[in-house]
Structures are given as structure tokens and as C-alpha cells.
Amino acid sequence: MIEKELTVTNELGLHVRPAVLIVQRSSNFKSEIWLIKGDKKVNARSILNLLSLQAPRGTHLKIVAEGDDEEEAVEAICKLFEEKFGED
Amino acid sequence: MQTTTVRNFFEDNKEIFNLRLLAGEQGLDNPITVPEVQRASLALAGFFKDFAYKRIQVLGYCEIEYAKSIQPDTLQKNITALLKTGIPCLVITKNLSPPEVLPPLCDSSSVPLLVTNFPTVEFISCATDYLASLFAPTIELHGSMVDVYGVGILLRGKAGIGKSECALALVKKGHRLIADDTVRITRHKPNTLIATPGKLGGNFMEIRGVGIIDIEKLFGIRAIIPQKEIELVVTLTPWKEIGEKLERIGEKYQYTELLGVPVPEIILPLSPGKSISTLTEVIAMNHMLKTHGENSAKEFVKRVRQSLKTESEQE
Fold first, then answer.
1. Number of A–B residue contacts, CB under 8 Å
2. What is the ipTM of this complex?
3. pLDDT at A68 over 90
4. How far apart (Å, rounded) are the C-alpha atoms in residues B31 and B200?
5. Mind telling me how many Å the CA of A16 is from chain B's nearest CA?
6. Domains of chain B in sequence order
7. CATH number of the domain that residue A53 is part of
């Protein structure tokens, strides 16, 4: 299992479109992937779960993955955040 | 190119228009190659430049009165010229009597002369409608067509994927079948797609493992409907083949084209345990909501943004 810190940097925060991107990207991997905000831990393959995090710009999150391709999975999701989901 | 003959036009519309054949029977197999009808006024006056000779020509009250008013030899000359242009047939409206010279000339040049009791404008409009639907672009494709809560849905997908089974489940739930396996689609002007069954009719369905069943006999008359406008295409696809094409929010429809007309398409992933017929019912209801101006997905997106904004202002 690996984990990594993340920050939401795009203007609109973790809204619907980014959530869709995270779900689509996560589906390419076999590992279980979660995002964590405070004491809330949600499945990265569920749009409604991701949105329930309520993460506007500046929110600090943690990503956790467990499985054969956990490293690649974490890297791929982090990249989405770094690229601001192609927004701004 | 689509064509018909004067004979077909005559036989199909004999009762509707009260058509009678006065002369020119030898020309009944003249082809009709355009879905258009016009009054023969200018030709009767001897003006043939750009004359649309492929159209059905109509002689109404004005034309008959005009024919009475000109010199008989001019009339004979103009009618002879008109009949030589290659027109498919002539139709006299309102049960008017033709000029005396007309029937023999129609006989000798093999141009059928028909008479209807319809007024001119009504005849032109009805005959144009008849020809337009006959000449409308048509394709036949593989799929099932159902009416779900009044929404016409074309189910598509590879052979054996479960289109017929889905249609059957929908019929069982009280919806209606238009066609199974072969769906004939006609484009009516300007952008309406009408689905009808193929030649064998829409009652029969092949269910793998069961064989051929007759939907009308099994479920009664309420289970079938002869034609329906296509409003949505639902494409059944194996889960594995969908990938990132899978729609997750549904704010906007994706579109596919049928006969050049864009139709909203929903790509539905299949996996064990899913009730495709229930999903199709929900798709139909959601479509009704959307056409009613209620887009749930859009509303949801808006709500998420609002909530994120509030959240960030609080921090």
C-alpha cells in the first residue's frame, strides 16, 4: 500500500468534471484507490463519493492505493491534479 | 433512384382521390421519377422553357377555363406539344370535363388522363404527400424498435447481445413493439425518422433457445404498433468494449446519425445482473424530463459547484 499528499489547485475545485476524470483514470488500474480528506475516505471509482469530499481549491487530500499497480495508479491520479484536470 | 409508375399511383390512390382513368391506358406504366406535382398552365399556353416534364401535371378549373378561351387549333398544338414532352400523366381535378381534343390525343400519345373529384389545391397537396413518403430515403437495419411510455427507442447492438430479449421484457412490462430484428427507417421531411417493420411484419420475434414467437398472439393487440418516430438510440455494448466512451454524467446527449439525421444515442454497458429493460424505461422517462426542460445532470453539476463555492468561502 502506498500513499501520497495532494492539493486541489484548479479554480473550481473538485467538481463534476474532475471527478469523472479521476473515475475514468482509476478504471485503468487494478488496484484499489481511495482519496482521503480529514477523516473521510472515499472510493476513487465513484463519482458521488468523490464529490462528497467537498474539496474546493486549496484542499489538502491524501491518495491511497493498494494492489499490483498501486505506484502507477497513484502517479496517474497525481498527474491529473498537477495538470489541474486540464482546466484554468 | 426511387421511381414508381402511373399505374401504382393510380391503384394506390384510386379510392382516396376517387380517381377515374379517362384515356391513355397504354401509358399506365409510364415512370414517375420525381415526387412532385404541378399545374400545367404555362404549358397549356405554349410556354415550354424549363418545363418540369417529369412531374405529374394537373389541369384545374383555371386551366380548363383557359382551354375553352383559346383558339381550338392553338389548343390542339399546345396539348400535342405538352404530351410530347414526356410527362407521366395528366390529372383533371373537381370532376371537370376535359377539352374534347384531349382524350384522343392522350390515347395516341400514351399519356394517361385521370380525373379526380378533389379540388386542385387539395389534390396537389395530398398527392405530393403520397409521393414524398414513397420517395423518402429509406434504410433497413438490424435492431429492435420499441415504444416506451410513448418514446420511440431503437435498440442496437451486435447479434446475440440481447436486443430482442430487452424488447420482449419491455413488451411484458406493458410497452409496445414496432419491429424486431429488421427495422425499416424512413426519413420524412425535414428531420423525422419513422421506423416500421421489415417485409415480414412486426409481430414475430426470434428468442434464442425458444424460437420464433408471435408477439401479437401472445400479448394481444396492445403489444404492437405499426410505426413510430425514432427519438433515441440505445446501443447495447459489452462492458469491456466501452472504455472511456462510457457516459457518467449525462448532461448532454451524444449523437449518432441515421439517414443524415442526428439522433441522441445512449451507449449502455452490459454486465450480468443488469436489467436492461428497466434501464431503458428510465432512459425513456429521463428523456421525457429533458424534453420537458428538466436536466437532472445539469442541475446536479450546478449544485456541486455551488456547494464547493460555499465550502471555500467558509474556509
1. 37
2. 0.78
3. yes
4. 27
5. 6
6. 4-134 (3.40.1390.20), 137-299 (3.40.50.300)
7. 3.30.1340.10
